[in-house]
Amino acid sequence: MKILTATQTHQLDEATIQQQHITSLALMERAAQALLRWFEARFHADKPADTLVLCGPGNNGGDGLALARLLHEAGYPVRVVLLPADKYAPDYEHNLHLLPKVLSVRKLAAKSLPILDADTLVIDALFGTGLSRPLSGLAADLVCHLNDSGVRVLAVDVPSGLLANAPQPDPKAPVVQATYTVSFGLPKLAFLLPQNARYVGEWHVEDIQLSAKFIAEAATPWHFTALAPSPDVQLPQRRQFAYKNVYGHALLLAGSRGKVGAAVLASGACLRGGVGLLTVAVPGCGYDIIQTTRPEAMCLPDAEADFISVLPELTSYQAVGIGPGLGQHEASRAVLEQLLRTAQVPLVLDADALNLLGEHRELLDLLPPDTVLTPHVGEFARLTEKVDDDYRRLQLLRDFTQKHKCIVVLKGAYTAVGAPNGQVYFNSTGNPGMATGGSGDVLTGLVLALRADQRLDALTATRLAVLAHGHAGDLAAAHTGQAGLVAGDLVRHIGPALQALMR
Question: What does the note under cofactor report (predicted)?
Fold first, then answer.
């Protein structure tokens, strides 16, 4: 699923109107009908006692007016407040004239901001994606009043004041803090970034049959990967007469004294991820642990008891992963460097392998093409630079992957997979319960398993792993709750998660 800019979104609307031979009013009615369906599904058992629709002067306000009419016809109590302006969009004026006379409709005045009771549900239809500057004047006062009230807010398309695909030009300017945001056709980039979470709230996308042709032809670096199987992110079915070599022999270098658990989690995920064979290289202190907890894996104990000091011979393996619980001993750094210099198979780097790269950035030049790195935000900052702006971080992600010809899995609520061609794929699965120690180790093992699979290219394998990892978290949370979820629960749910992604 593509993510378009505000300009492209406007062009998409125009293309839909032209290609489907409909009017802009008809498209607006589609949007209002979609909002009504979502509204009734969400509030059928919790009908608001008071629904206030705030309408700006443009097409977003027109959506709000059409929705107000439909809500009234459906029997909901509705009142409408209009933001005064010098000019109004034609479709806004048309929908204003269609409002039933019995509806309460008034224009906003500076000294008469609307009364907001605790049980009021506000529908924010003030400004949409066409907004290009910070809110000011009466609109800003209204938004501040709304945010201070603490009432529930449903934002139409985007929260008013929030730019769809760029950072706020004035961080101090008010933006509606929505409880829910219902958008049309495609998600907005702003929805996926942590710095906008307090504005967007719980977001949803409703289908209004926008032009599939325009979307297919639109150029964008941003994509959203949904769980529903799609041709570009599917796990092939296993053949009837397949044998283990088809699914690869992986080598995992992980663990140090006190952190062998990371090797246990990563190896468990690799095994559950369908790898044909797995060998785990651990320090001497981890031998009994791996042999006991992961009997399906072979184990190579290092001569050093506390850390990995030797790189095994690599000719037997189809993919190599390194990093979970590795530690940052100088000998382990040397092993990482030797691996980068000599490996002829796909690599997956995580955790301390990334920290070692951050401390010794000259090693970045040794990364083989299509190496997969799986940093969280802090680890990524050590590889690039520390930034507070999520849009800037995305640009760093694109720059880094293109420069080093690698794939980066930037972990977070909507994990972003950056590809060597500058494309970025946001993930749809997962939940806050996965913010627990060891989740990243599980992802490393799963990526390693799919990189060893001879049927998958690097980007598809990585996107599949990220999608399945998040889905495993969702399946696990359904049993444990989010607060009770631990990384081992993810391992146990990898099989069903991958099954959901089978062709």
Answer: Binds 1 potassium ion per subunit.
